[in-house]
Write a structure and sequence with these properties.
Two copies of one chain form a homodimer. Chain A folds into two domains: 268 residues, Aminopeptidase (3-Layer(aba) Sandwich); 123 residues, Alpha-Beta Plaits, CATH 3.30.70. Chain A has 14 helices and 19 strands. By secondary structure, chain A is of the alpha+beta class. In chain A, a hairpin with a 2-residue loop joins strand 4 and strand 5. A seven-stranded mixed β-sheet of chain A has the order 1-2-6-3-7-18-8. Chain A has a four-stranded antiparallel β-sheet with strand order 12-14-10-15. In chain A, helix 2 runs parallel beside helix 3. The first copy, chain A, is globular, with a radius of gyration of 24 Å. The interface between A and B is large, with 84 and 84 residues. Strand 12 of chain A pairs antiparallel with strand 12 of chain B. Chains A, B: It holds the Pfam family Peptidase_M20. Chains A, B: This is Peptidase M20. Chains A, B: It comes from Pontibacillus chungwhensis BH030062. Chains A, B: One of its GO terms (biological process) is proteolysis. Chains A, B: Keywords: Hydrolase, Metal-binding, Protease.
Chain lengths: 444, 444
């Protein structure tokens, strides 16, 4: 396949900027990426461009609104990226884009600079070909997605008219596998929190106090172990409130997405799958709520040995939420559980880090059906409509506040190492992505 | 109280050497401390001095064997010290000895350079006063105590004749409190190990795999929580093999050591004591075996958040052993338990780090009774004979291999911050210690 060299050279410029939003030392780089994007949108013919300051990193806004009587599409994406660490595992440096084997390697190549840039170039191409666009277009691109979008929801709430659209178009998801496009129609909500458990004001000598005082690690493992039953079902009272049993139609839809159990097991080095009884792997990871401990630490855990009774231990927990689950109610339920199961002599402090409501989209919506047709035209294959287990908190906000269908037209692949070393994008999907988006915009 | 300034100046020289045995970058400092000690023993009149190389740090040996027909005392101590970290919590630098309030502050001040130096000066004083010593004396001083003495036991085994003695004298323990001396007559054994639990070959995205695959942290907390029952009693089958129920005499002895529950609770910030039912705090921490998790870590536990299903988690565990418990058997019992309780999909690797057998000494032994008399003469108070909960592995080796009574004549105080910032020794006990040791040696 022949790619547009000029487009790739420009994308490389974008990828060279280490716009890591979660690292304060990269604040200027994040700003630089915002300004670069503004320039690139200007070149594409987008008007009314602004780099809007927030309490964190800026939002880039621009529009082209001269297609009278035609629908308006709001394009969302993010120009910030994950940290590159562990850097030693990158075959070529994270911020030196390199093509190998028709794939472009760089941090942000697929998440989300590469996917976002598809829209910039699709608009530019349409503008160059016709001197105008077939629809009205608005761009709202943030620089804080990788830190859970703290400032975008209030911006959306406060600018409903400015952002109003007939569809919100997002390319920040993946195909099922190479050659099989997908439009995600369901995202789980999320709740992330941390907890710190304390039993004494200092670590104690295990020879002097061991066996006679509470041990913060014993207390923490006891408390964390109480969060699930033996089958992996969450034991927190009230956790499943608002969760419907899946209909047989939904179960069929979920089962229709291809999934190779044995291959996955082998690739990930798993001895066994494991989870809530009565549900398949795909149901457990796609449409059921979960509670996972993502990290914990306490006492002395470095090389060597220290015979202490640890006085503190902490853990990070996140939940994926579905259906009618309310993040705030789930948080309360967990707090009640922790309080009820708190071991003798332990005090527990908690902090809520992230909340996002689950969202479900109707695949029969015409804006989504037209996206499906565009995929089929370019790839020769109709897209599937998977229920994704992940969370993109902003999708629910767009959907709820703007009351618009959200079209998640992803061009990534699950194998492209997002958030990991050697992130890349298949150039085939970059080039076909531009085709698909232009085709979609024309079809509206 | 007037102290010997010359002695303290010399001790300061000793304390200035950062002989941290566990840190390879201090290897030369450890050697320097060994050579310094050799010079100091030579000055005291000790003969046949050697700095004996081992696979790790050297052993300093010397003797004076001209007291024909008199008993022989082997003096043990260690010239290595713990690391100074966290250094920012020291009021004055760890290796710049400073006197405040009649206390000498420095790393090693009480553990064990200061206590060891009491013997060097006691011998020197006796030699200066009488031109000879009242008993035969051997010094065997190691540089690896703070790393669990890996090379001393084989040295003792291989040099039984050279080290043969009527008593082994050690000053590396503490008073009950200021003014109340103690001769420790029981030390618990120890077993330390680490375990690493794995569920997959890489951390996984919790939105994609959460709820459907084993989580290494869930597995680890489940496994660790199975090690104790609700009362804090160890649940490992076979763990208590060889442990006798305490006799009423032993319980009385233990109860006779003063202990202020409320004060301890307040000082340590404890909400409650906690441990095996049917035993007092002092029994739990002194004469009962224990199993403590000393540290654990897994997944992402730094600042911020990462929504992963962790694939690995590890923990460090140590046991205190008593009576007929064999460290190797206890290790096997724990391995069996881990294997039996291993959660679905988890693989567990373990590594044994330290073993030490418990030791119990007869307080009626004349060598111990004479030490008690020496304390009473100098301090005006008879010492108590506590059962210490800690472990000094080498005591059991001396006792078993040399078949000699071990006299643990400590001059530290429990409040002297050993292994912690602002370690110090009360100069009163340094000066009275020299008096007590000279008095003891004369009395033999």
């Amino acid at each position: 396949m022949k790619h547009n060299e000029q487009y790739i050279n420009e994308l490389n410029e974008f990828l060279e900027i280490p716009s890591i939003s979660s690292m304060p030392e990269h604040k200027e780089d994040v700003k630089k990426a915002a300004e670069w994007l503004k320039g690139s949108l200007q070149k594409a013919g987008i008007e009314n461009l602004e780099v809007i300051e927030t309490e964190g990193h800026p939002i880039v806004y621009g529009d082209w609104l001269h297609a009278e009587g035609k629908p308006t599409v709001l394009i969302y994406g993010h120009y910030d990226v994950q940290p590159a660490s562990p850097e030693e595992l990158w075959e070529t440096p994270a911020f030196e884009p390199t093509i190998r084997d028709d794939k472009l390697y760089a941090r942000g190549a697929t998440d989300d600079k590469g996917q976002l840039f598809i829209h910039v170039k699709a608009v530019e191409k349409l503008m160059q070909e016709n001197g105008e666009l077939p629809v009205n277009v608005k761009f709202c691109i943030e620089g804080e997605e990788e830190m859970a979008s703290p400032n975008l929801p209030p911006f959306i709430e406060g600018n409903q008219e400015k952002l109003a659209a007939d569809a919100v178009l997002i390319s920040d998801t993946s195909f099922i596998e190479k050659g099989q496009p997908a439009i995600c129609t369901s995202l789980r909500g999320a709740l992330a929190m941390e907890l710190n458990l304390k039993t004494a004001n200092t670590d104690l000598h295990s020879g002097v106090y061991g066996g006679g005082v509470p041990n913060a690690i014993h207390s923490l493992v006891n408390l964390l172990d109480s969060l699930h039953d033996e089958s992996g079902k969450v034991s927190v009272e009230g956790f499943y409130k608002g969760v419907q049993d899946p209909t047989s139609q939904l179960r069929e839809e979920v089962a229709s997405i291809p999934f190779d159990e044995e291959k996955t097991k082998e690739e990930l080095g798993l001895e066994a799958f494991y989870g809530e009884e009565g549900f398949t792997f795909q149901e457990r990871t796609g449409i059921r709520p979960t509670l996972e401990v993502n990290g914990l630490a306490g006492g002395f855990h470095e090389e060597g040995f220290k015979t202490i009774v640890p006085s503190e231990a902490h853990a990070k927990i996140s939940c994926r939420l579905v259906g009618g689950q309310e993040p705030e109610e789930v948080f309360e339920a967990i707090l009640n559980h922790l309080d009820k199961h708190k071991p003798v002599g332990a005090s527990v402090e908690t902090k809520k880090l992230i909340t996002a409501k689950p969202v479900s989209l109707d695949s029969n919506n015409p804006m989504i059906q037209k996206a499906a047709a565009a995929y089929e035209k370019v790839y020769g294959v109709a897209p599937l409509f998977p229920k994704e287990g992940g969370s993109i908190p902003i999708v629910e906000v767009f959907s709820r506040v703007l009351r618009s269908p959200v079209v998640m037209m992803g061009f990534g692949l699950p194998s492209e190492n997002l958030h990991a070393p050697n992130e890349h994008i298949h150039l085939e999907n970059f080039t076909n992505g531009i085709e698909t988006v232009t085709s979609y915009l024309k079809s509206l």
